[in-house]
Write a structure and sequence with these properties.
It comes from Dissostichus eleginoides (Patagonian toothfish). This is UDP-glucuronosyltransferase 2B31. There is one protein chain. The chain is of the alpha+beta class. The chain folds into two domains: 1-71, no CATH class; 73-112, no CATH class. Helices cover 33% and strands 21% of the residues. It has three helices and four strands, in the order ββββααα. The protein has helices spanning 55-68, 78-88, 99-110; strands at residues 2-4, 18-24, 38-43, 46-52. The longest helix is centred in the middle third of the chain and has 14 residues, at 55-68. It starts with a strand and ends with a helix.
């Protein structure tokens, strides 16, 4: 979730189960920035952690919160979260990957 800090005090967070909200300023070079001014984690409509300096820290904290709070991945994003957890972060738990996630992993490993 992205919003311009100068335009909106707070983004519309209704019906958002989990999100990483990145704050970009006027000087941010692009909308997809891995070094935003700051980031925050949203869980079930409430900001639970804010002023996180790096996007990578936000991802790690989000997965930690989901584990500690026993939250399920959002239904529309289950494959995305599973891919991040098992492939990018390496927390596979010894279980085999779903075929769609395994195919994506193999495709990424074969690219030069």
């Amino acid at each position: 979730m992205h919003f311009q800090a100068e335009e909106v005090d707070r983004p519309d967070i209704t019906n958002t189960p989990v999100a990483i909200v990145s704050v970009v300023t006027e000087g941010t070079p692009s909308q997809v920035d891995l070094s935003p001014a700051s980031t925050a984690i949203l869980v079930e409509g409430d900001f639970v952690i804010s002023n996180i300096p790096r996007m990578a820290d936000s991802f790690a904290l989000l997965f930690g919160l989901m584990y500690v709070l026993h939250l399920d991945y959002p239904k529309k994003l289950i494959n995305t979260f599973t891919f991040i957890q098992k492939v990018l972060m390496g927390f596979d738990g010894g279980k085999p990957l779903k075929p769609c996630i395994l195919n994506l992993k193999n495709d990424l490993l074969l690219r030069e």
